[in-house]
Design brief:
about 450 residues; alpha/beta; seven-stranded mixed sheet; five-stranded parallel sheet; 17 strands; about 25% helix; about 20% strand; globular
C-alpha cells in the first residue's frame, strides 16, 4: 500500500486503506491480523460502547462449540500477539489453563478475550455509527459518513472518512417468528429472544410455566439452566421445536471438514441452484445441539425421576407455533404438529425464543451503491471467492463482507473456526500479495470429482 496518510486537501478528510464497519468477532479478527501487515492503515468503527459477544447467553458453564484454537488469529498466525494463549498469559492464567486441560473454553472467557483485543488494538473505535457509504469518483475511495454516539446511542457529533476498501461485519439480528413478533414488542409481556435471556432470567424463574421454543444450542442451554434452577416436581417447563428431533450437532472428525476452506471453495464453485438445495439439508451441521449438552439435560431429568414420579417437563419436537395471544393474564400458543397434522393450544406464563439469528442485509447501508451491485437470481448480492461483493467497473475499491455470504460460501460462514482464514483471504486480496500464506489443502475429504486425485 502507498500514501497511507493521504488527506483531502480541501477539508483534511483522512483516507485510510481499509475501513471496517462493525466490530464483532469476524471484523475483530480482521483488525487483529491487519495489525500485523506493515504499512496497512486500517480503522474499524462500531456503534456500541464496547465489545460484547452475546451477553444474554453467557450462562454459567456454557462453553464454545469450537476449540480455543478457533480464536481471532491462531489458525493463520499462531505466533500473533492477539492469540488466545497470549491473552491468558497476559492474565497470568497460562499454568492454570494448562492443568485444566480445556479444549473448549467458557463462552464468558471468549467474550473477555475478544474485549481485551478490542481494547488493545488502536484501530478499533467504539461509539461510532456508520450512517452512509458513497463512492467518491474524485478520490477513488468510499466516502463514509458516521456519527459519534454516546452510551445511549444518541448522535453527538458527525464525522467523515475516506477509505480505499471496506469490510462489512454487520453481524446478525435475533430472529423472531411472525406469530410472536407483536408480543415481543410489548415490554409487559414475557416473550423474549434467547439473546436477552440473562437480562430476564430472574423474572423467568418466578414464572409458573415457561416455554422454550427452538432446538438449537441456545434453546438447549436455556432449558438446562432453567431446569437446574427450578424446584423438583414443580419445574413447569415445555421445550418445543420445529425440527423432527432434539438432534445432536454433527461433530465427527470427517463431518467437521465441512467447516474447512476446502469445502468453502467447493461450495462457492457450485451452481446457485445446487447451493440453494444443499443448505436446508445441512442444518445438523450448525443448528444441532452438542452431545454433551443433550447428555446433561437427560442426566438432570433422570436425577429428578429417582425420588419417584416424572418431572413436570415436556419435550416435543416437530411442533410449529402458528399463533400467540394474551388471555386472562397468561399466554396462549397455537401449536401444530408437523407430522401428525394435529393442533393444540398451550397455556404458559413466559416464552423464550431460541429461534436463531438472521444475517443483517448489506443493502440498507450500501443503498447508494445498489446500482453497481451484481446480484443472483434471488436478488442476493454476489460474493466472490475472496469475500468481495461483485461491483461493476465504475467502482474501483473493494467491499468485503463477513457473515453475510452463506448463500455463496456455505455453512461455514458463521463458524468461528473460519474467522482467521477468511480474514487472511481478505488481507491477501486487498494487498495483492501474501502477508499471510494459506495452506493449499485443509481436508482429507475431496468434495468434488474435479479435484479427485488420479
Amino acid at each position: 500500500m502507498t500514501d497511507h496518510t493521504a488527506e483531502d486537501p480541501q477539508n483534511a478528510t483522512p483516507i485510510v486503506d481499509l475501513l471496517g464497519v462493525g466490530i464483532g468477532p469476524f471484523n475483530l479478527s480482521l483488525a487483529a491480523l491487519a495489525d500485523g501487515v506493515p504499512g496497512l492503515d486500517a480503522v474499524f468503527l462500531e456503534q456500541r460502547a464496547a465489545f460484547r459477544w452475546h451477553p444474554g447467553l453467557l450462562i454459567d458453564g456454557a462453553t464454545l462449540q469450537v476449540p480455543f484454537l478457533a480464536d481471532l488469529v491462531s489458525l493463520v498466525d499462531p505466533t500473533s500477539r492477539w492469540s488466545f494463549l497470549n491473552y491468558i498469559r497476559s492474565q497470568e492464567r497460562l499454568f492454570p489453563f494448562y492443568f485444566a486441560e480445556r479444549f473448549h473454553i467458557p463462552r464468558a472467557e471468549y467474550d473477555a478475550y475478544c474485549r481485551w483485543v478490542s481494547e488493545e488494538l488502536p484501530s478499533c473505535r467504539f461509539g461510532h455509527r456508520v450512517d452512509t457509504v458513497h463512492w467518491d469518483e474524485v478520490h477513488q475511495a468510499y466516502e463514509v459518513e458516521f456519527s459519534r454516539v454516546d452510551e445511549h446511542g444518541t448522535a453527538v457529533a458527525p464525522g467523515r472518512v475516506l477509505a480505499r476498501h471496506l469490510a462489512l461485519g454487520l453481524g446478525t439480528a435475533p430472529y423472531v417468528p411472525e406469530p410472536l413478533r407483536a408480543l415481543t414488542d410489548d415490554p409487559d409481556v414475557p416473550v423474549l429472544h434467547s439473546a436477552d435471556y440473562l437480562t430476564h432470567r430472574e423474572r423467568l424463574l418466578t414464572a409458573g410455566h415457561v416455554t422454550v421454543v427452538g432446538a438449537g444450542q441456545s434453546g438447549a442451554e436455556v432449558l438446562l439452566d432453567l431446569l437446574r434452577a427450578r424446584p423438583q416436581g414443580r419445574e413447569g417447563l415445555t421445550w418445543l421445536a420445529r425440527s423432527p428431533a432434539f438432534a445432536p450437532m454433527e461433530y465427527s472428525k470427517l463431518g467437521l471438514e465441512h467447516f474447512t476452506p476446502d469445502y468453502t471453495r467447493y461450495f462457492h464453485d457450485l451452481p446457485e441452484d445446487a447451493r440453494d438445495r444443499l443448505l436446508p439439508g445441512q442444518w445438523q451441521l450448525y443448528k444441532g445441539i452438542s452431545a454433551d449438552t443433550l447428555g446433561e439435560i437427560h442426566d438432570e431429568l433422570y436425577r429428578r425421576v429417582l425420588p419417584g414420579g416424572w418431572p413436570d417437563v415436556t419435550l416435543t419436537p416437530g411442533v410449529a407455533v402458528t399463533g400467540a395471544e394474551r388471555r386472562d393474564g397468561r399466554l396462549a400458543l397455537a401449536l401444530e404438529h408437523t407430522e401428525e397434522g394435529s393442533t393444540a393450544r398451550l397455556r404458559t406464563d413466559a416464552v423464550v425464543l431460541a429461534t436463531g439469528y438472521a444475517e443483517r442485509p448489506v443493502d440498507a447501508l450500501l443503498e447508494p451503491l445498489s446500482e453497481h451491485l451484481a446480484r443472483d437470481a434471488a436478488g442476493r448480492p454476489l460474493v466472490d471467492r475472496d469475500q468481495r461483493l461483485a461491483l461493476d467497473e465504475k467502482v474501483g475499491g473493494s467491499v468485503f463482507v463477513q457473515n453475510a455470504e452463506r448463500h455463496t460460501h456455505g455453512v461455514g460462514t458463521p463458524d468461528l473456526g473460519l474467522a482467521a482464514w477468511r480474514s487472511a483471504v481478505i488481507l491477501n486480496a486487498l494487498t495483492g500479495r501474501e502477508p499471510y500464506p494459506l495452506p493449499g489443502r485443509t481436508a482429507f475429504t475431496t468434495f468434488g470429482l474435479a479435484d479427485t486425485p488420479r
